[in-house]
Amino acid sequence: MENESITSLTREEVERIAVLAHLSLSDAEVALYREQLSVILAHAARLQAVDAGGTLPPAAVGRRPVLREDEPGATLSREEALFNGPDCDAGCFRVPPVKAME
Amino acid sequence: MIALCDLTAHEALDLLRSGEITSVALTASALDRILAVDNDVCAYLTLTPEQALAEASAADALRRAGQDLPLLGIPVAFKDNLSTRGIPTSCGSRMLDGYVPPYDATVVRRVKEAGAVVLGKTNMDAFAMGSSTENSAFFPTHNPWDLARVPGGSSGGSAAAVAAGEALLALGSDTGGSVRQPAALCGVVGVRPTYGLCSRYGLIAFASSLDQVGPVARDVTDAALLLGVIAGHDPADSTSRLDSGSDYTAYLARKDLAGLRVGVLQSHPEDGIQAEVADATRRALKTLRDLGAELVDVSLPHGVYALSTYYLIAPAEASANLARFDGVRYGFRAAADTVEALFSRARGAGFGPEVKRRIMLGTYALSAGYYEAFYIQAQKVRTLIRADFDAAFEAVDVIVGPTSPTTAFMLGERVADPLEMYRADALTLSQALAGIPAISVPCGFDAAGLPVGLQITAPEMQELRMLQVAFAFEQATDWHRRRPSLIESS
Questions:
Q1: Domain assignment of residue A78, yes or no
Q2: Cis ω for the linkage preceding B154 (within 30 of 0)
Q3: Directed axis angle between helix B9-17 and helix B23-41, to 10°?
Q4: Which CATH superfamily is domain B4-258+460-489 in?
Q5: In the A/B pair of chains, how many CB contacts fall below 8 A?
Q6: Known catalytic residue: B29?
Q7: Distance separating the N- and C-terminal Cα atoms of chain A
Q8: Rg (Cα) of chain A, in Å, rounded?
Q9: Residue B359: closest CA among chain A residues belongs to which residue?
Q10: For B135, which of A50, B197, B278, B354 could close a Cys bridge (C-beta 3.0–4.6 Å)?
Q11: Model confidence pLDDT, tens digit, residues B6-35
């Protein structure tokens, strides 16, 4: 991995991350995050110096089997589940089309 | 003047049990205090006064009928990232403005079942990302000790409310210090429990391997009381521990600390410890030694990497957890002609600057080409930090040091410099990464009259030992009895 790209992000990299993160950003935000993320990542780059060769990441948070039998239980009613939906119709959440209409 | 709302919860419970006061009078006192000071402190996002008085009245009726419960009739507040059935829960973000949860978080349910009266929801940095409560989308909270300063964060509303008598107890959440640091800055007690001791079900997720709910209180007994109520296994949280909590207050009798080995960390220059904080910590260590404890130098060789480690792991988890906020099922919606555009616009407009910054950082750390070097490496260092604590606890029973490098800073002082803001958590991150408990207790004041917090860290599931040491320290000092002058003028 190239150290220059860690410490200083390009505008294109910031825009690519925004697309991956589904965040629509203004030009001013792209410029700001380019600068701020570069500073934060430069600080984080010090982790590369840690010799963690034989170390494993914490494999699992729970450290024990957490699966149980699937048992039917109480769930939200349709009305409750839809209550906070900003746009609902006929018992469903309504969203715009996947492709823009011609 | 001391009002009923300035009592600790255990003092108020004694008076409720002897019939000298009622929950209605106690709750009315807290509501009066809110009316008097919250225009300045801004601790609350949502208030539920009518409901609170009705619950207080029901608590009094239960007590008259001969019933008692651990928190019967005690007015409490919840941080706004804890789901409360029927009460708006915004998480401090425009993204969830107007969202009303259809269920209670497990910890909320337990506090209600213990008989508490709910006053409302407290302000916070949006999605618990921040160290000053200035990242709230609605307004900043002000420190009751000096209204020009921050209360800390992200549970700044809970800490400020308890400090100002606007609630007797509160719950916060601590991902990297978000209970302990505001507790220190507001002169109250804050606990981060062992990871998995308290259920995360209904806590709006930020970083799931780090998030823990914890109590904010005016003294150690109250913190122990509230921790005992919320601790314990919950089948609805797959990371909830099977070994549960206990009635911690029953064991808080210990007055001396003979035989206790207290680990003392040499601070790192990079921590930027304010001289008065270092002085207060030295005096506190002397108090512990006078109580019979033996002071032992310890080191956490990888502690210096905690900040970098945390600010990769937490944003990485946040970027995944916050993917659910897409403008479809709840929250903020933007006009768009395709579903892809809806996601991006709703998220771009609904999230605030710090949340977007962390989602970007986390997405980067998880993206192809950087995943091994950043995210996996951070996870490995996390293991090393945990191993450092395991080694240190071979030689000592608890580790003691400052909670926050500085006392409360000015509102606006660090907003433009994210890394500087992140340093406010420098001393609280390693415990979170290791999954071990820590408590902040008041241990002095700086020259400007701002509170200093002492942090006591214990091994996994040694909450009782941690609380006993904190209690012994508290009994030997009177820092926790001081109240902000704002109260006297209200």
A1: no
A2: yes
A3: 150
A4: Amidase signature (AS) domain (3.90.1300.10)
A5: 167
A6: no
A7: 44
A8: 23
A9: A21
A10: B354
A11: 999 999 999 999 999 999 999 999 999 999
